[in-house]
Design a protein that fits this description.
160 residues; mainly alpha; two-stranded antiparallel ribbon; 2 strands; 52% helix; flat
């Protein structure tokens, strides 16, 4: 039996000395050292000092008062204007020859506010009249053409 024990010891010694076992033992040793180092770092960390929050002190002055009837008084400089604003627009571009109502004056509905130069207005009216005459002529031409088409279509239908 002693030979059996000696052979067993020899086999175990050879198994423990294999490169695979040595790498495993090195890994376990490395992890053990890393865990011990982590615990020592956490165990020796200093306790954080929490700063005490002090509220700022504001100086306060006190005085005694007696009830009285007072009105506020202040001086100011400025100009008072109305919130109502009128915007005037036109399709005609012309010079203003005369202004009848100035800014700040009251105006009644239908009252003449200003006068424009007439020659430009007359030119615009003449232009619009010419445009109207042209459109009427085009309408007459279209009506004549339509009547002619109707007459010729009646003629072709009677022949057919």
């Amino acid at each position: 039996m002693s030979a059996y024990l000696q052979v067993r010891k020899l086999i175990m010694k050879r198994l423990l000395n294999t490169p695979r076992k040595q790498r495993f033992m090195a890994g376990v040793g490395f992890l053990t050292i890393a865990v011990l180092a982590s615990f020592s770092i956490f165990a020796t960390v200093p306790e954080p000092v929490i700063p005490e929050h002090l509220e700022k002190a504001w100086p306060v002055s006190v005085m005694e008062i007696a009830p009285e009837r007072l009105a506020p008084i202040f001086s100011t400089f400025g100009k008072v204007e109305s919130n109502n604003i009128a915007e005037l627009r036109t399709n005609v571009i012309a010079e203003v020859t005369h202004v009848y109502v100035r800014e700040g004056q009251w105006a009644v509905e239908g009252e003449l506010l200003l006068e424009l130069r007439k020659d430009e207005l007359e030119l615009r009216v003449n232009e619009m009249a010419a445009n109207l005459a042209q459109q009427k002529a085009m309408l007459a031409s279209i009506e004549t053409e339509s009547r002619l088409i109707n007459e010729t279509s009646e003629h072709f239908e009677s022949v057919w």
